[in-house]
Amino acid sequence: MMGFTLEALDQRVAARATASPEESWTAKLLAAGIERAAKKFGEESAELIIAAVTRDPAGTAAEAADVLYHLLVLLRGAGVPLADVMAELEKRTAQSGIAEKAGRRKS
């Protein structure tokens, strides 16, 4: 069983967001604005894709960790709590992904 959770990471991001930008990468990203946080998330996402398609398991794990961290920073910058994302994911588990996507096309 894993001892570290996404919620624990989110709590660390929240704590570091209140630090000085000179002392915290999280605070520095957030102080630079949502555009900087979004750009960094995009960069990390591209690095994850490259690691995955080059079949680099260690690199994929490391880049996935970066993506998760930067996603939480981006969500914080956008004012979207992780709980809202988790609630959305929970709603989606009530049906298959194929059925959910088909339902989107009708609306």
Quick overview of this protein structure:
The protein is an all-alpha fold. 77% of the residues lie in helices and 0% in strands.
Structure notes:
With 107 residues, this protein is mostly helical. Helix content is 77%, strand content 0%. The protein contains 6 helices and no strands. The protein has helices at 6-17, 25-31, 34-53, 57-78, 82-92, 97-106. The longest helix has 22 residues, at 57-78. The mean pLDDT is 93.
Note the main attributes of this structure.
107 residues; single chain; mainly alpha; 6 helices; Helix Hairpins
Produce the secondary structure layout.
Elements: H1 6-17, H2 25-31, H3 34-53, H4 57-78, H5 82-92, H6 97-106
Helix pairs in contact: 1-4, 3-4
Count of alpha and pi helical runs: 6
Secondary structure category: mainly alpha
Instruction: Give the name of the CATH architecture.
Output: Orthogonal Bundle
What number of structural domains do the residues give? Answer: 1
